[in-house]
Every structure is written in structure tokens, then in C-alpha cells.
């Protein structure tokens, strides 16, 4: 496989992707192949996994030579390494991301653990090959001893990769165990339910796990969790706040949030969390115009900037939300504001927040600048692996 000078430069910078437009020759290379990567001058760059239909044509496995027949073995070693890495960095939870694709040198594979269940997602042709799948399952079972493994299928991704359609669901069950599709997990001492059939992503937003605890440390008084989904922040806030309201546009998410609250009712001294189904933009406008005040506000919207092109609109969206929230936070109160858009950098996000603070005429003191939890590792040379911003501030 020969890559263009631009593709080669990208690899030299430490990135692991080469786009289709930077492939000079892929003649006679079968989909899903393990390929050796060279530039125009026959310099060797390493070994990659090839997708014949993806925009991202090759994803590097490493700078060494890896024979095709060793691919499954290398994948197995990396799954083991990913699991071992987490033994050092994951605390107070039995739900976390076990494998995070490129960030674990396993491009195209995502695995999450929810207590006794694992959820697996295959995103590329190479990771879909039978020997690779078998190697992955073998390692997961051996190292983590799950009761059940489910596969989460995004039909659109299989279509793009020209992979045959696949039903999601249970793909492995421990001998003698009944297949199951739901379980309860514990995170930071709180209980949550996981349902393999519902939910967004692969269930919960595990990347916010450490930020939930951080937010809880500062939260107090009357709290508002905007874009609360199944209650991740709200349930944590309810341990320290007098009153908590969670807001989301999705009724199914709020129903699960309510069930999650019930699972932890004993921790809340009889206080109930209020769940409001609403469009966050409308609700924040109405509440701030109506003079509502809160001691703690959390903003955790979905990724507004899916692509670079939508960046301006995204930043306007973030600013509108943050401006409204800043107006409602009482003096001495706390704002926890997040963005999971990779395309909005931390610097751009802070700039947006600065401009919202100026417009709202509030002083904002940064308490913490946080990122995704450590089970979602960041590779310095692959900027796409760093996407979550969580800024905790004190408002005066
Ligand atoms: N804070 C959550 C994750 C939020 S994900 C957690 O930690 O688990 C983003 C959420 O925003 C989703 O639940 C989605 O239903 C909701 N959402 C998207 N657009 C919305 C809108 N305009 N108004 C309210 N909620 C919205």
C-alpha cells in the first residue's frame, strides 16, 4: 500500500489514519486486509488495517511489520493490555470503557463494561473478520469473566463499510447462564441500570464518570442538570444538594433517570429529584427571563459540532446555553459546563464562555478544567481521541 506525500506526512506526525484520497495505490488489496504501508520512495511506515470503502482507508496498527496471519494475535494482546491499563486508572465503578478504539491501538473496536455484561461495537471491516472477533471474545472472557456479551450494531456504519447486515444483541453467554440484556452497575457509590436494547452510545455516558464526582464536590443548594439523559449528574448532585431538577428532551431517558433515582432513594433522605421533559433552549430562556435562580447548574449538551463546517452554529448554541445559565446562577454558585464536540477545542470553548460571561456581566472563576475519564485515553498525536471538555466554575 503506497500513500501520498500528504498521507506520509500525517503518519510522520504520529497520526494513525490515512484518508482514501491519500492512498496512491491499493491495487489487488482485499477489503479488511492487514497491509504494509510505504511512501513514494519505498520508505516503510508500518502495518495498517485497510477498509476498502471507508473515507479513512487505513488505520495504523503500529510502526513495526506485522504479518497478516498475526493480526488476530496482536489484537488479542492489545485487548489484554487495554484491560490491564484500566486496572490502574479505574476506581469506584464496575462500569467503564474497556477498549477505546485508536486510543487503545485497536482501531475500530469499542468495548464497554457494565458490571457483569460487556457491550461490544465493531466499526471497521478488519475488526469484523471472524478470527479477529474470536480473539477479542476469548480475551474479554478470560480477563473479565462476564456473564454475557452483547453487540451493539449501528446499521449505518456496517453499510458504509459494506459489511453484511447484522442483528445486535447477545453474542456470548457464560456456560449455564441465561442470556440477559440488562443489568445494574455501580458508579461512585450510586446504582444505575443498563439496558442493552435502549440508550444512546453504548448505554451510559461513561466518559463523564470522574466529572460527576468533581461536580458533586462543589455542588450545593438548588441544582439544575440540563441535558440530564438518564440522570448521570443529577443523581450525584442529589447527594449534596437540597433540590435537584433534571431536564431532557427525551422521555425514555427521563423514565430511566427516574428509575435510577429510585434505585438510590435511600441516599437522598427522602428528597426527590424532579424530571422535566423540555427543549433545553426554550426552558433556559423561560427560566432565566422568569428570574429563576440556582446555586448549581450543569450543562452537558449533545455534540453540536459534528463537523468542522457546523462549528460556528455550534459555538452560537453553546453560547446561548451558557449565557442563560450564567444569568441564573446565584453569587457564589457553580456552573459545570461541558462540550463533547471534538471540533470545538478547549480554547474555543473557553473563549465562548468568556464572551458569555461578559454578556451576562458575571465574573467566572475557573475551579477545574477537566476532560474525559481515564478509561477514555487520549493519544497526544491523535487529537480526535481528546474530545470532552468539562469546565467547573464559580460565579460571582
Ligand atoms: N449529562 C448526561 C448526558 C447527556 S447526552 C449524562 O451524564 O449521562 C445529551 C442529552 O441531551 C440526551 O439525553 C438528549 O436526549 C438530550 N437533548 C438533545 N437535544 C436536546 C434539547 N434541545 N433539549 C433538551 N435535551 C436535549
Strand order of the largest sheet: 16-15-14-17-18-20-19
| Beta-strand share of residues | 25-35%
Helix content: 25-40%
Number of strands: 20
Q: What ligands are attached or bound here?
A: S-adenosyl-L-homocysteine
Order of helices and strands: EHEEEEEHEEEHEHEEEHEHEHEHEHEHEE
Q: The biggest beta sheet, please?
A: 7 strands, mixed
Terminus-to-terminus distance: 58 Å
pLDDT < 50 runs, ≥5 residues = none
Task: Work out the radius of gyration.
Answer: 23 Å
3D shape:
globular
Q: How many helical elements? A: 10
Overall mean confidence score, pLDDT: 95
Q: Structural class of the helices, strands and pairings?
A: alpha/beta
Could you characterize what this model shows?
The chain is an alpha/beta fold and 396 residues long. The protein has helices at 5-12, 71-89, 130-144, 155-160, 209-218, 232-237, 251-263, 280-289, 311-328, 346-360; strands spanning 2-3, 17-19, 23-25, 34-38, 44-50, 56-62, 95-100, 109-114, 117-122, 148-151, 169-173, 182-187, 190-195, 222-226, 243-248, 273-277, 294-299, 329-339, 364-370, 389-395. The structure holds S-adenosyl-L-homocysteine. S-adenosyl-L-homocysteine binds at residues 205, 208, 227-230, 232-233, 248-250, 253, 279-281, 300-302.
Amino acid at each position: 500500500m503506497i500513500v501520498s506525500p500528504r498521507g506520509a506526512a500525517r503518519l510522520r506526525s504520529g497520526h494513525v489514519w490515512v484518508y482514501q484520497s491519500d492512498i496512491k495505490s491499493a491495487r489487488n488489496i482485499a477489503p479488511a486486509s492487514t497491509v504494509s504501508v510505504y511512501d513514494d520512495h519505498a520508505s516503510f511506515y508500518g502495518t495498517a488495517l485497510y477498509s476498502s470503502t471507508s473515507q479513512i482507508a487505513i488505520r495504523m496498527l503500529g510502526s513495526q511489520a506485522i504479518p497478516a496471519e498475526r493480526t488476530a494475535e496482536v489484537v488479542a494482546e492489545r485487548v489484554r493490555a487495554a484491560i490491564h491499563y484500566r486496572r490502574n486508572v479505574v476506581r469506584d465503578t464496575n462500569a467503564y470503557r474497556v477498549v477505546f478504539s485508536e486510543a487503545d491501538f485497536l482501531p475500530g473496536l469499542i468495548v464497554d463494561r457494565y458490571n457483569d455484561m460487556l457491550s461490544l461495537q465493531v466499526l471497521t471491516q478488519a475488526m469484523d473478520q471472524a478470527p479477529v472477533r474470536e480473539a477479542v471474545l476469548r480475551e474479554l472472557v478470560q480477563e473479565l469473566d462476564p456473564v454475557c456479551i452483547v453487540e451493539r450494531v449501528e446499521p449505518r456504519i456496517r453499510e458504509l463499510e459494506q459489511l453484511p447486515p447484522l442483528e445486535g444483541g447477545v453474542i456470548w453467554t457464560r456456560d449455564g447462564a441465561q442470556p440477559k440484556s440488562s443489568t445494574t452497575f455501580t458508579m461512585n457509590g450510586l446504582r444505575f441500570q443498563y439496558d442493552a436494547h435502549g440508550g444512546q452510545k453504548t448505554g451510559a455516558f461513561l466518559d463523564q464518570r470522574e466529572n460527576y464526582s468533581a461536580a458533586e464536590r462543589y455542588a450545593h443548594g438548588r441544582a439544575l442538570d440540563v441535558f440530564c439523559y438518564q440522570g448521570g449528574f443529577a443523581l450525584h448532585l442529589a447527594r449534596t444538594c437540597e433540590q435537584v431538577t433534571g431536564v431532557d428532551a427525551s422521555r425514555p431517558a427521563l423514565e430511566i433517570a427516574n428509575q435510577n433515582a429510585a434505585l438510590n432513594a435511600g441516599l437522598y433522605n427522602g428528597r426527590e429529584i424532579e424530571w422535566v421533559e423540555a427543549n433545553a433552549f426554550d426552558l433556559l430562556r423561560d427560566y432565566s427571563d422568569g428570574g429563576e435562580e440556582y446555586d448549581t447548574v450543569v450543562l452537558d449538551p449533545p455534540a453540536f459540532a459534528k463537523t468542522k463546517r457546523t462549528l460556528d452554529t455550534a459555538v452560537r448554541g453553546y453560547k446561548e446555553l451558557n449565557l442563560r445559565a450564567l444569568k441564573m446562577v446565584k453569587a457564589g454558585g457553580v456552573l459545570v459546563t461541558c462540550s463533547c464536540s471534538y471540533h470545538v477545542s478547549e480554547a474555543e470553548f473557553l473563549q465562548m464562555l468568556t464572551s458569555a460571561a461578559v454578556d451576562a456581566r458575571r465574573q467566572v472563576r475557573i475551579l477545574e478544567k477537566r476532560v474525559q475519564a481515564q478509561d477514555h485515553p487520549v493519544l497526544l498525536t491523535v487529537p480526535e481521541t481528546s474530545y470532552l471538555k468539562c469546565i467547573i466554575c464559580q460565579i460571582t
